[in-house]
Design a protein that fits this description.
183 residues; alpha/beta; seven-stranded mixed beta sheet
């Protein structure tokens, strides 16, 4: 069974994080919500507190198949400010393991040189942080082992791209139909 880690920093964008968790769990991808601090609850950009499954120190990164970074301006800053998470992200990149980021969070990948020569997208005001990328205006895009999404309104497209990566197009299409996505 595939295993995903969605990483939450204070100020994360709720829909980008929770829609992805929901979609992945619906197709039986084991998905942990992980606080990047020692706190078991993390406050979102809009004052919503969510209880986490684990903290960063409890994660066995060898067991994860994907690191997922939700956006939100402050949430992204907090993710990028975590040396422990950034070391693991670099390790995933070097091993060719899947990394996904949405909204402001693809800027982290750009800053780390992970998008050079790749197609990628982000929230429009963060596009200049996608260093070396071919910036595309798509809801979600996968290039190699990197999946990026534009923003909150694209969270389902982004989640379905992750589902497609692990379960295939047919499973992603079935899930989209089940949730009545894009009539």
């Amino acid at each position: 069974m595939e295993k995903a880690g969605v990483f939450f920093g204070t100020g994360y964008e709720e829909i980008e994080a929770l829609a992805v968790v929901d979609l992945l769990r619906r197709v039986e991808i084991e998905t942990d919500m992980i606080s990047i601090t020692d706190a078991r609850e993390v406050e979102s950009a809009h004052g919503i507190w969510v209880k986490m499954d684990k903290t960063l120190n409890e994660v066995d990164f060898e067991q994860l198949d994907i690191i997922i970074l939700p956006g939100g301006g402050t949430g992204t800053e907090n993710l990028e400010a975590s040396p422990q998470l950034m070391r693991q992200l670099d390790g995933f990149y070097e091993k060719g393991k899947c990394i996904a980021a949405i909204c402001a969070a693809p800027s982290i990948l750009g800053h780390r040189g992970m998008l050079k020569g790749r197609r990628a997208c982000s929230y429009p005001t963060f596009e200049d942080h996608l260093e070396g990328a071919e910036v595309v205006q798509e809801a979600a895009v996968q290039d190699g082992h990197i999946i990026t999404g534009r923003g909150m309104g694209c969270a389902i497209d982004f989640g379905l791209a992750i589902v497609k990566h692990f379960k295939g197009q047919e499973e992603a299409d079935k899930l989209a139909e089940k949730i009545v996505f894009k009539l």
